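Q: Here's a chain of 454 amino acids. Please give me its 3D structure as tokens.
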Amino acid sequence: MSARILVVDDIEANVRLLEAKLTAEYYEVLTASDGPTALAIAASEKPDIVLLDVMMPGMDGFQVCRRLKDDPETRHVPVVLVTALDGRSDRIAGLEAGADEFLTKPIDDVMLFARVRSLTRLKAVIDELRVREASGRRIGVIAGASSRLGGTGGRVLIVDDHERQAQRIASELSIEHRPVIETEPDKALLTARGPVDLVIVNATARSFDGLRFSAQLRSDEATRHLPILAIVDFDERPRLMKALEIGVNDLLAKPIDPQELSARARTQIRRKRYTDYLRDNLDHSLELAVTDQLTGLHNRRYMTGQLEALVKRAAHGGDPVAALLIDIDHFKKINDGYGHDVGDEVLREFAVRLASNVRAVDLPCRYGGEEFVVVMPGTRLEDAERIAERIRLHVAGSPFRVAQGSELLTATISVGVAATQGPEDTPDALLKRADEGLYEAKQSGRNKVIARAA
């Protein structure tokens, strides 16, 4: 997977060296020689990863990283800090600033490309979610950013057979998070399916293979998106590379530095909160796209797609499909006499009665205004007519309590019923027959059910 990478360093020779290495691996490279230029390019060019030198005059790498992570437009872009320093305090400062990784000069090419590939995969997932979320906001079915994105504390699953090490990790994280320790991988896999924000795995465990456990998390649909922080021995190069290859999000070297542990855990949980927010908004937008907001029933768009598939199946020898087209009688008088708020109450209450009087396999939908459709798979005309009559009697026989329960309002419905008739039938023809039945019911006095066979 290729990516667009922004290289930021005030020393031109360093820039050219990284540019040559990355270009040779077919990455597209952008360059900047100072912090302000880097921020401008990041805002305009939207890179996939930023490789950022720490020691720069004026605005150093920590400041640039912090600015990138504070900006909603660039906070999701992975930042790898690159420095000649190898001090603990600098590494912690970089992670606290929001950096995703910290590489030391001279850069290890194998580690560089492993991290770039890992972060590119992560960025691609977030980009897809962001695009869909932005589309939802444009059409008005998704709200803006949520304040809960600022939260960091979460439930952390520690999978480690080294009891003392696991307890030290839990003790350090318990200041901010809710850690849980599991020493057996089978139990840990079950625990990971619950509400977990981060999994910390000892990749050097003796009683189980930590990398195999991580791979199992990635292959399970329920845990596929959980962030994994692996505890590794940096001298074991093959296992370290394999960890990144199978989808581990971050690495923590042994012996464990408590502050680095806290900083890396905080970064992973913050990112999970952001991706969860995007996914939740996407799920909500999909629900809104097929749901009528007033009644909670499916809308006409969803009904059309489902009806088309069912009629097509019936035309190829499948079970028949019936449709009820329902209209609330004299609904305009209700709106004019009681007001639109009461009219909305009637629509909502009718939707509840409709949904409770059809089968679980049936599809009650709001067709528009005071018209409703029920799509009934595997239903013959006479059976659909009987169900329609039951709905009619339930509505006419039980007044609607409106105006916050202070008044009772009697309403009736008219229903047209139709069912598929053979291989040449179409959804439009089916609904047209139901509409003709509805028209006849209204013309003949309303509060009636009329089935149309042809």
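Q: Can you summarize the key feature?
A: Residues 139-150 have pLDDT under 50 and may be disordered.
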